[in-house]
Every structure is written in structure tokens, then in C-alpha cells.
Amino acid sequence: MAVGRIIGSFFQYASISIAAAIGLYATLLALLTISTLQSHAVYLHAIQMTWFKDLDVPENFGFLKNQVTPFSIKTPDGERLYAWHILPIELYRKHEQSLIAEPVGFVSDFTSRIAFQLLRDDPDARLILHMHGAGGTVGSGYRVPNYRALSAGQPGKIHVLTFDYRGFGKSTGSPSEDGLILDAHAVVDWAMKIAGIPPSRILIFGQSMGTAVSIAVSEKLAMQSPPVVFAGTVLIAPFVDCATLVSTYRVAGVIPILSPLASFPLLFNYLRRLIQDQWPSKDRIARYIRSNEVNGEKYRLAIIHAQDDYDIPWHHTEVVFWHAVNASIPTGISYEELEVRKLDSQVDLGAAGSIMEWRTDNGVIREEVLKTGLHDVIMGYPIVTMAVMRFFEAADPSFTC
């Protein structure tokens, strides 16, 4: 009898626990249908991840005195985007004494600073426009070593401009899909019109959520008249679109969002339709490629992902790559046919992963899959430096890294 009561109590408590878990999960889903809460869940912009460090003092993040200049860029709709301009280390060394003599901290007029003049006045200067992922700020997590990896290929010439989207860090406003695209466009305009850097000397870099922003602004500019196409676009850990992402995404790699509902198609599809910001990267990258092919514009695209990425599964890159390749061929190519092509053309690098490169008369599309690198650690890897070097030199062979 005692054993029976114990077993009965166990099942009772288990049933209560399961019911509570289901209730909490249902409550979470209901809350995510609220616009404001959904925005916080998608962008995580309220999470700073700078551990009480002052962004206006970049030296706190390991930079040399005045190697980084904090300033702001104004958007067409009146928001102010907080930005860092980061000097490459060799260029900094050559001008160290002049740079350390300047005041430190946020500057209201970046054009008056030596760092700006070094960017604007050097015809060999290259600029990377860095678009970070969800959550945090320009100084969070693995972003700082990422900036170093980006300029490492030519430490005397490659500048980095990174910024926080509206609602992130010290930037004003609230995030939205249209808003973040407008932010990226404002940064591009600043680079070309204020700093005077032509698109052939600009590379777009995006990671995670930043890949969606990068693809969106690249597509928009490639489809305008006349088209604007940059030296290259490097995407780290992209996703197909928001609906697909939330159907596979697990918070911290453990807690699923919508995947438990996959067995209930009606409910699953209903909840997917409630996602406000869709970020259809697969469609945008196809239009970007197709536009460049039609216009005869030279383009370079690298898509990089780690197989052990538990935030955004690496198969998203396979799908994004296929959409890009498919758009480059007038008659198209099926996903299955491309997989067969990979059997012959993919380069197996063993523990370093694999590379698949697709070339047309106008462009190159690279898929680089690493065995390891997680979601963020990969940003400081040499593969990022190599992608930058490869594209800048391809855009201008005289620019040897």
C-alpha cells in the first residue's frame, strides 16, 4: 500500500509539473503576440552585455587611446545611431602621438578628428560597415575581437565602422524591420557621402541578425538606379527568415520556441503569421543576386557558418546559399541538384570544414562551413580575415593584403 501511495504521489506531482510547464509555455506564446514584447524577444535590445562599462570610453574594451572614436550618425527620420570608428592598428601606430593628444570620449563632430581625416584622405583606405546581431551593443561579447579580425588582413588600410541600431545601446528610437534597414542605409550614406568612400572600397559585414540587415540594405541599393554594389558582402550565421528561425530556434540551445508545435500545423502556421518583422533573407538575397546578374554588376558574397552553432542551425546557410545560387541561373537549379553538384565541387578541409564556391560571369558566391566556431566565437577566426582580404583584393587587384 505504501508503495502504491508513493507511486500515486509521484504521478500526481509529475502531472502537476507537466501541466505547469505547459501553462507557462502557453503563457509565453500568448505574451509573444503582444507587439512590444515580441520586439524585445526578437531584437533583445534591452540587453546591454557590456558589464557596466562606458561605451564612450572604448579603452575599457581593450583599445588603445583614441583608436576608437565614438560619434553618432543621424537617420532620415531623426534618430541618432551610436557608432564607433575603429582605426587599423598599423595606421594607428604611424599617427600615435597625434592621436593620443586629442581629447577622449564621444565627439559631436567626427569630421574634425584625425581618425576621420585618415579615412577620408587616403585613396587606398578600405572601410568595413559592421552590422551586429541581436542583443548587446557595439562593445558586447565577441564583437571586439571581431573588429580586430576584420582589419587584420591589412592593418594599415582597413577601417571598421560599427553602430548600434535604433533602440540598442545609446542609439535613440525603437527597433523594427523597416527601422533597422533605414539605419543601415543611413550608415552607408554617411560612408559614401560624408567620408567619401566609394562602394568599391566598402565591404558589408553582418553576423546573425546583422546578416538580415546586410542583405536587406544590399538588395535595396543593388536594385536602385543606378545600382550600388559593394566590394563584397560577408555573412556569418545567417537565417532563412524569421518564421523559419523561430521554428528551429532554442533559447541558449535548450528551450524551444515554436518547434514543439510542429505536430499541430494549424496552430503552428497561425503563430508564424503573427510574427511582425519577417526578415525574408532568402527572398532578398535572391533578388540581390538576380538584380546584379541582370545589370551585369560584379558582386562577391561569402556565407559562413559553424556546424556547432546552436543558436542558428547551420542548415540555414545551406538554404540561403541555394537561394543565392538558384537566382544566379536563368533556368534555376533545384536544391537537390545543387547538393549533387557539391559532391563534385565542394572542397573538404577536414577538421577545418568545407568550401563550396559558385561562380558566374558576374559574381562569386561562397559557402564556408566550419566544424566548430559556435555562434559568436567564429567572429574572431582567421576565416573572417581571409574573407575580407579575398574580396578587397578581388575588387581591386592592386590592393594586396
Automatic annotation (TrEMBL):
Segments passing through the bilayer: 12-34
PANTHER family: ALPHA/BETA HYDROLASE DOMAIN-CONTAINING PROTEIN, PROTEIN ABHD13
Protein keywords: Membrane, Transmembrane, Transmembrane helix
Entry protein name: AB hydrolase-1 domain-containing protein
Gene3D superfamilies: alpha/beta hydrolase
Superkingdom per UniProt: Eukaryota
InterPro entries: AB_hydrolase_1, AB_hydrolase_fold
Species: Talaromyces atroroseus
Residues covered by the AB hydrolase-1 domain: 128-290
A Pfam family annotated for this UniProt entry: Abhydrolase_6
Keyword Disulfide bond among UniProt keywords: no
